[in-house]
Design brief:
- The chain has 361 residues and is mainly beta.
- The chain has 5 helices and 28 strands.
- The strands form 6 sheets. Strands 1, 2, 3, 4, 6, 7, 8, 9, 10 and 12 form a 10-stranded antiparallel β-sheet that branches.
- The longest helix has 10 residues, at 169-178.
- The radius of gyration is 20 Å and the shape is globular.
Length: 361
Amino acid sequence: MRGTAEFEDLKALVSQGAIHSLAGIAPGQIQPSSLDLTLSEEAYRLPGSVLPLAGEQVGDLARELALERVDLSKPVCLARNQVYLVRVREELALPAGVEAYCNGKSSTGRVDLATRVLTDGTPRYDRVPPGYRGQLWIELIPRSFHIVVQAGVAVNQAIVFSGRHVLDQAAMLDRHVRSPMMFVGSITCGAESIFDGRLTMTADLDRDIVGYVAKPTHLPLDLSKIAAHRGEDFFEPVRRPTGGYLFLEQNRFYILATRERIVVPGDLACEMVPFEATAGEFRAHYAGFFDPGWGIKDGKAVGAPAVLEVRPHQDGLILRHGQPICAMAYEVLSRPCTRLYGVCGNTYADQSGPRLSKHFA
């Protein structure tokens, strides 16, 4: 395998035991170019975040620092703004030169649940070193809501690669000219939309409902219950700003959408990354992976917007329609994907604007 693993590569790694779990790897965990990571029964509430140093085991740190042991063999409510460390059911025995990178699932990001993966002896979040053999742990911090979880729930995902190849400026320009990957309406975006090898996307404030903002609530949100919650209990709609300026309050959580629609061809995968930092102070919690096939409908590259999970940290933010808000970095798969996103009924394949997570009716 050379490049980022796609569906068949991931299946092979599972069959070879490089990715394994005592609970078994369910077929639905293997996505077109990523693997869903699920929670085990073992969890701890900690006084804060922690990273292991070289030679340290994450499990030892969790047990030493724990304020309490949490048993996820049954549904448990994780309190807002508390830090939890949970062992992942999946374990790794990666071949030499093969590594992984983790990111929150889209449904997790849309309920403002922050997730970060830790590995033994690695003082970095979300990075699994080449040839890693051992457990994975995941830090969970509910930000806006109390969150109910239990063993088996998937809150994070991993891409696996050997020699990750992210397209540079010249390669992106060439691909976009030959087969456009971003549109506004029926118009193909020009070369000026590509900067540092990334497609630059902007905010869409030209619709009746431009997004949603989390509201204070005592109600818990259960991640195991799909289409079972009322949106109005957790979010308020954000309407088109009458004067053209949308004010995002500091430390409030918003769901917005991009004006542009993107396509992820079958031989590429994509990651949403923050827009270039010198454009202004802006932070967002992104659920970042877009699988091959995103924006492809009935074999045609029509594009689909991206949904953003936004939280201004330092100050309030004044946002306008068409303002750059995020960017898309594309990477090469080991081979064209045999199972494109949307073919098997993926949750957000048909989204056309800001949308709450799958947990809402």
